[in-house]
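Late entry, written up from scratch paper. The run itself happened at the end of the previous shift, but nothing got recorded in the book at the time, so transcribing now.
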Amino acid sequence: MFRKLQLNFVMTSVVSITFILLVIFCGIFFSMKGMLNAQAYSIMDGIARDEALSPYYNPAVARYFFIKVNKDGKIIGSSSDITISNEEMAECKETVLKRGVANGYIVNRNFKFKFLKVSKDYGSIIVFIDCSVEQDTVKPFLIICASFGLLSLALVFIISFFLANKAIRPIKTSWEKQSAFIADASHELRTPLAVATSTLEIVMENEAETVGSQGKWIGNVQNELYRMNKLVDDLLFLARADAEDEMHKEFFDLSGLLNKIYDVFMPLTQKKGIKLILDNKENITAYGNEFRIKQLITILLDNAIKYTNSGGEIELKLEVGLNLLQLSVRDTGEGIAKEHIGKIFDRFYRVDKSRSRNLGGSGLGLAIAKCIVNEHKGTINVVSEVSEGTEFIV
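Output as recorded:
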């Protein structure tokens, strides 16, 4: 598929450039032909007017002769700077008179001429100018144009091939990520569905049992459905983020929001024996989506609680600078190895997959956090040492 897309890109570029070069070269060629043609008729008109060969015309630019013809069509005079016989002159005269036109183009046995016939009191004067000089001028131009055109097309092909590779690379990467995302999402959804299905089969096999006696199995189904519902919500959020839907933003009380989040998480950390610290600033207003910022902080705190053991410490801190708000969540937990830090914001990426699944994680939390930060035109970074702890800085 990508090979075909690359080929289409290259062919489109080559065909487009070919068309443009053809238009340019044809324009130059016909302009040049028109200029040479106008120059030739200007020379012939001057000769016909003066009835004499002008010493000012360069033979390298134009070679010509003229014939004076009376009203009966007989030659009564001529002058030439071309070696041409009287017989050939007569043939040219007869051809022009038969045509009955004032100007045009004729081919003699040895020459190709343009002619101009001008009426006079005694009859007419017919001026002939040799076209071979014009052709000698045009032929090298055509050769240069053809050579330049072929060279240009070769360069365009090479450059287009290079640019096609460069342009398709992010598309290919995106496609591969999307394919991996769909496969991972299918796998994550399959697990709770399989658990719920098998648990319900157990319940159905014990028809004589009461609902109360099978509360354990029904509770398992409820937990898996809750997990699946959360996963679907996360997937929908990421899908909307990929579609670049503009979220609603307004000014909100960031200091108040941090206090509320602290109050919600305090019982959770106390239950696990973790010390939760809030380093807040008073009356700080932020511009953004309050619900999404709350979701962002919740994700970071939730991760910190999952990977911090009893006796540990978590700090939620707000710092204010010039046109800058910085939120940080620091913990004294397990930490993240350096080889994993660059990947933790990837969708469905988990440092310890088995433990994350046991803790209820799907590998989407930090991916959602990064999306929220990006939508607020911010940055998110992580500093971590194994067995020392982790700090997320927004």
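The mean pLDDT is 81.
(Scratch paper discarded after transcription.)
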